[in-house]
Amino acid sequence: MQAHIVRIEAGSSPCWQVRFNLSRKTSRSYRSKTFYDSHFGGKRKSRRAAEDYLSAELESAGVHSLPLGRRVGMKYPENPKRLLKNNLSGRTGVYRSEFTVTRPYGEQQVRFWAASYRIGPDGRRTNRSRRFYIGERSEREAKRLAVRFREGWEQAYLTGGVNGVKRFFREWDAERRKTGLARSDSPRGNRKGK
Fold it and tell me: Which end of the chain, C or N, has fewer beta carbons within 10 A?
């Protein structure tokens, strides 16, 4: 039995997709259903609808013992030794990205390194990331901070669980405020226009 709820952000219709297979012997019983944010009124409501649908399908199939963590495909933390083929950072959960913002003076290219995390500062499950913008700091420094953040988050979870993660966020944010680096975690970029 395999069951997952997967977030799909690509394209113009972000959604949650439920994927499950009721039989280990054959892939013919594989099912999937998509829950669009626009249809359900937002990201949280579409996620709740996806979870309700999966729970109902599992109950109708007589599956009652699948834990919620597996049901929604979450593992804390991800396996740091398993890197995806497209990983350019050399570290699980650390990635580089960029986007363009249109300003009155022209377009602005915003580049950053980010570290993803699955348990947030409040101790709840999430799928977010902390960004380290390139602009006031070098590319190398932004990547170093993202890796340091991710490693600290993983260590906090492994040694202290949810309470360790909460403590890690408090200490990280306090250190950033103390050194004045919190201000440089806001987006800055290169202008394309005039």
Answer: C
Q: Provide the pLDDT for residue 71.
A: 35
Q: What angle do CA 141, 143, 146 make, to 5 degrees?
A: 110
**Cα(103)–Cα(109) distance, integer angstroms:** 10
Distance of alpha carbon 29 from alpha carbon 26, whole angstroms: 7
Q: Which long-range contacts (CB under 8 A, 24 or more apart) does 173-177 make?
A: 173/121
Predicted TM-score of the model (pTM): 0.53
pLDDT (average), residues 96-116: 84
Are 101 and 110 in contact by the 8 Å Cβ rule? The answer is yes
- Amino acid at the residue 183: R
List Cβ<8 Å contacts ≥24 apart for 137-140.
137/184, 139/111, 139/113
